[in-house]
Design brief:
The chain has a five-stranded mixed β-sheet with strand order 1-2-10-7-3. It has a three-stranded antiparallel β-sheet with strand order 4-14-11. The chain contains 14 helices and 14 strands. With 392 residues, it is of the alpha+beta class. Keywords: Heme, Iron, Metal-binding, Monooxygenase, Oxidoreductase.
Length: 392
């Protein structure tokens, strides 16, 4: 390994991430080779530039999804279906999610999203403050998602810590235990939906047929677990990053307040905030020996191409750490690209839009509570664990 390509990079403990996670990643992007090796978390490559990350997101023949976590999970760990499948196998499992989350289906969910948002915000307004993550970010998307899969809303307090360990657990053992706990929880529900199918999303994914044959019970558990992990965390994290930014950038918040009914502007603002606040990381496995831009990859090498670094790359987005609602053509990969692009992106954008419109109509001025800095965490999915807000 050439010494010039070795960097001490631990994405679970990035210097400065307690203040701004994305800015912490950006510093490595500016200071390091475009592709470098770190001995941390089992040893893996890291790609830092949009051009290369986009190749790695789409080229499954050289960069496989078959192991997406770092450090690596135990060999006996069940595959996370469909995320740890490569095309064409991946497409058969993905189809039910795409159908359930296409624009027409999401439009039918919008009324419910709106009602949950309004009810939650109205309850918070007279309090003069809240812990945003617990009181809103982990209420809106999770209420909506648990309705989609028709699971008891009262189970969320049991499920959320499990999801937290899965997406931000720093070691393979923690993440493995969370997968097993989620699988144990789902046993009853998966059996029920396979024996007596309903019209919910959980029914659709646990009864997928491949070549005329229904997937096995074990595959159904794995598929359902992955969907739950995604539905319980991702949108909640993005809502929290949005709220933190608006609480600390008065001009941006007030500009959105003044233009809440300008749909074109609101769409651009949401996309710019998503670009600036990417979250997810999924690892790859190199499938064969080959050279890429002077880097000698070997079969079995692990690779991290962080989605968020696409949006932060100054080669495609000038002044990338600055949020600019007038930015034209902002490039990002917050929801991935290619065959594994996030099927929930349409619903996520809809929930973010409803949050901005309904929150800012009722709470146009708010800030981070003095003396209570946000608590943030990096990992396979970056997030905000605690965000104290206050308002008059």
């Amino acid at each position: 390994m050439p010494e010039a390509l070795v960097v001490d990079f631990d994405f679970y403990a990035l210097p400065g991430s307690d203040e701004d996670i994305q800015a912490a990643y950006r510093r490595f992007q500016m200071q390091c080779p475009d592709i470098f090796w770190t001995p941390r978390n089992g040893g893996h490559w890291v790609a830092t530039r949009a051009e290369d990350i986009l190749v790695m997101q789409k080229d499954h023949q050289r960069f496989s999804y078959r192991h997406i976590t770092l450090p690596p999970m135990p060999e006996a760990t069940p595959r996370q279906i469909p995320l740890e499948l490569d095309p064409p196998e991946h497409a058969h499992y993905r189809r039910p999610l795409m159908q359930a989350l296409q624009p027409g289906a999401v439009a039918k969910l919008e009324r419910g999203v709106h009602d949950v948002a309004v009810e939650t915000i109205e309850r918070l307004v007279p309090l003069g403050g809240c812990e945003f993550v617990l009181d809103f970010a982990k209420v809106l998307p999770i209420h909506v998602f648990l309705r989609m899969v028709n699971l008891p809303l009262e189970d969320k307090d049991f499920l959320l810590p499990i999801a937290e360990d899965s997406v931000r657990g720093r070691d393979a053992q923690t993440r493995y235990k969370s997968m097993m706990a989620m699988g144990a929880y789902l046993q009853k529900w998966v059996t029920e939906r396979r024996e007596a199918p309903g019209d919910d999303l959980l029914t659709q994914i646990v009864n997928v047929e491949i070549g005329g044959q229904r997937i096995s019970h074990e595959e159904a558990i794995s598929y359902a677990a992955l969907v739950l992990f995604g539905g319980l965390d991702t949108v909640a994290g993005m809502l929290s990053f949005f709220a933190r930014h608006l609480a600390t950038h008065d001009a941006h918040r007030r500009e959105i307040v003044e233009r809440l009914d300008d749909d074109a502007f609101l769409k651009r603002a949401i996309e710019e905030l998503i670009r600036r606040h990417g979250m997810a990381n999924t690892a790859r496995v190199v499938t064969r020996d080959f050279e890429y831009k002077g880097v000698a990859f070997r079969a079995g090498d692990r690779l991290l191409p962080p989605n968020l670094l696409v949006g932060l790359d100054d080669r495609v987005n000038p002044d990338p750490l600055t949020v600019d609602f007038a930015r034209q053509g902002g490039v990002h990969a917050a929801f991935g690209n290619g065959p594994h692009a996030c099927p929930g992106a349409i619903l996520a954008r809809r929930e973010l839009r409803i949050f901005l419109k309904e929150w800012l109509r009722r709470i146009p001025e708010f800030r981070i509570k003095p003396g209570a800095p946000p608590v943030m965490a990096t990992g396979m999915v970056n997030g905000i664990l605690k965000l104290e807000l206050s308002w008059s």
